[in-house]
Structures are given as C-alpha cells and as structure tokens.
Design goal:
It is a single chain. About 25% of the residues are buried. The longest helix has 29 residues, at about 150-180. The chain is mainly α and about 180 residues long. It is about 70% helix and about 0% strand. It has eight helices and no strands. The chain is elongated, with a radius of gyration of 19 Å. It has two domains: about 5-85, RNA polymerase sigma factor, region 2, helix turn helix motif (Rna Polymerase Sigma Factor, Chain: A), CATH 1.10.1740; about 110-180, Orthogonal Bundle (Arc Repressor Mutant, subunit A). One of its GO terms (biological process) is DNA-templated transcription initiation. This is RNA polymerase sigma factor. Belongs to the sigma-70 factor family. ECF subfamily. It comes from Aestuariibaculum marinum. GO terms for molecular function: DNA binding; sigma factor activity.
Length: about 180
Amino acid sequence: MSLSQLIEKCKNNNIKAQSELYTLFSGKLFALCLKYSRNYTEAEDNLQDAFLTIFKKIRQYENKGSFEGWLKRITVNTVLQQYRKEKVFEIAYDENIDDVDIDIDDDRISIDYLLQIIQELPDRYRLVFNLYVLDGYSHKDIADMLDINVGTSKSNLARARQILKQTIEVYLASQNLQSL
C-alpha cells in the first residue's frame, strides 16, 4: 500500500491503517519527542499525544508538501504545548548576555556525551537550543512556537550555549587530570 493510500484510509478512521502509520513513523517521531522531552517516559507520553492529534487532524493534510514534515510539526507542537501550559518561558529578557561559541571538535567529546548534556539543560534553554541549533528554526519562528518574544529566544540560546561551554570545559579538565 502506498503512503497516499495509507493516509486516505487513516482519514476514514481505518484502525488497521492507523496502526500501520504508527508503526511506520513512531520511531522517528519518538526520537523527536525524546529530543524535546525531559525524559524517556515523558517522551513516550508525548508520542502518544502526538499520534492522537495526528489522527484527529489527518483530514487537514492536503497532500501538499512532505507528510513526514507535517507529522514532525504536529509532534513538536504537541511537546511544546506541554511547556506552554507550564509557563516555562516566563522569564525576563537579559540584554547583557553574551553569545558564546562552543568548540566541540575535540576527540574527547563523544556525540553521546554531547546529547546527554543538551538533554540536561533546563527546559527553556534545551528547547530553544534544539529548535535553533539542531532543527534550524529562526528566532522569530521559535518565538511564535513558544509564545515568547524574539529577545527571550536569543537570550535562552545564549544561556544554553554558556551552560554547555562550561560543562564541556569542566569535562575536558577532568579528562586532563585523569590522563596525568
């Protein structure tokens, strides 16, 4: 069965087609949920919520553009909605924060470690960092998605980078001590 046929069957509430669509895309969408969620269990809950929304809104998909992109947008919005409800982003904008570059070309920093420390960032910093750095959204897009102003998005990104830089510096210093 082609993807377009599967989508049409899902639009008609065909449970078997919905199950097949879930099987087809749940892995990719779970990885996306995990990136924006606080932990594995929350990511599982967010994935389920995202699929409920997907099946509820699938009739709105008009076969224009990437279906996978449409799924990802709904999934990210579902996760971000949880944070908006919690009002995670109600902070003051700090104009005095400096943007920093992070040097991760060091062979001693694994991708797993880097992903771990990104996951450990406070919610508001992790979300903006992931949206901007990993997914390529603009600050305006992020501000619209999170219902914050552009300055807050920029400030949160700068703070995330500062935290990551400090964490990496401490990690590398400890690696140097261990090699002595």
